[in-house]
């Protein structure tokens, strides 16, 4: 997969996890559980976790607090990336980005195509950076969370991954 530089020491990040859903609860949030497990198994800290209704202003409220928090390095958002009337994650987060990570959505859909075929075009995954906080949005399914974390995000949040990653940038936050 990626290229690792063995003489660089791993740096654990504080990662917040937001589930966007009108129906999930802490007991039924399997996608949030999947992301938290991935974060912790990679050696990072699950700093905070929240569930909000699929509402632009509720999403922005929680995300803005985490972006402003000097302790939070990254945010993983699951849910609200489809095309139903209630799916509003991209509309909520894109205005908060200082810079958008264009290749994330493209790469996610390319990888996802191998798993779900052309249905991947219904995934409006986006990522960006705001106040040196890297933010990755992914669909609400557990499979999509595994694909995004295992095949893209985990490496980009590992300082040993070369030729580049987001760790040095987010560690300068605050």
What would the keywords be for this entry?
174 residues, alpha/beta, Molybdenum Cofactor Biosythetic Enzyme, Chain A, 6-stranded mixed beta sheet, two-stranded antiparallel ribbon, 6 helices, 8 strands, 21% strand
Summarize the structure.
The chain is an alpha/beta fold. The chain is built from six helices and eight strands.
Structure overview:
Helix 1 runs parallel beside helix 5 and helix 4 packs across helix 5 (142-156). The strands form 2 sheets. This protein has a 6-stranded mixed beta sheet with strand order 3-2-4-7-6-5, sandwiched between helices. It is α/β, with parallel strands linked by helices. The protein has 6 helices and 8 strands. The protein has one domain: 3-Layer(aba) Sandwich (Molybdenum Cofactor Biosythetic Enzyme, Chain A). A hairpin with a 2-residue loop joins strand 6 and strand 7. Pathway: Cofactor biosynthesis; molybdopterin biosynthesis. Residues 16-160 form the MoaB/Mog domain. Keywords: Molybdenum cofactor biosynthesis.
Topology of helices and strands:
Blueprint: E1 3-4, E2 14-20, H1 30-41, E3 45-52, H2 56-68, E4 74-78, H3 89-93, E5 99-100, H4 102-116, E6 127-130, E7 133-138, H5 142-156, E8 161-162, H6 167-171
Parallel strand pairs: 2-3, 2-4, 4-7
Antiparallel strand pairs: 1-8, 5-6, 6-7
Helix pairs in contact: 1-5, 4-5
Function: May be involved in the biosynthesis of molybdopterin.
InterPro entries: MoaB, MoaB/Mog-like_dom_sf, MoaB/Mog_dom, MoaB_proteobac, MoCF_biosynth_CS
Pfam family, one: MoCF_biosynth
């Amino acid at each position: 997969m990626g290229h690792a530089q063995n003489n660089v020491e791993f740096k654990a990040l504080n990662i917040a996890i937001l589930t966007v859903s009108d129906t999930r609860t802490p007991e039924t949030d399997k996608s949030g559980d999947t992301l938290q497990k991935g974060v912790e198994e990679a050696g990072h800290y699950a700093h905070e976790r929240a569930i909000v209704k699929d509402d632009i202003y509720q999403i922005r409220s929680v995300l803005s607090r985490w972006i402003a928090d000097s302790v939070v390095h990254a945010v993983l958002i699951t849910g609200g990336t489809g095309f139903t009337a209630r799916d509003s994650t991209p509309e909520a987060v894109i205005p908060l980005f200082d810079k958008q990570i264009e290749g994330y959505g493209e790469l996610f859909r390319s990888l996802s195509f191998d798993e779900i075929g052309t249905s991947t075009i219904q995934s409006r995954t986006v990522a960006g950076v705001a106040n040196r906080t890297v933010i990755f949005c992914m669909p609400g399914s557990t499979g999509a969370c595994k694909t995004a974390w295992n095949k893209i995000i985990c490496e980009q949040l590992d300082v040993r991954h070369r030729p580049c990653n987001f760790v040095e940038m987010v560690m300068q936050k605050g």
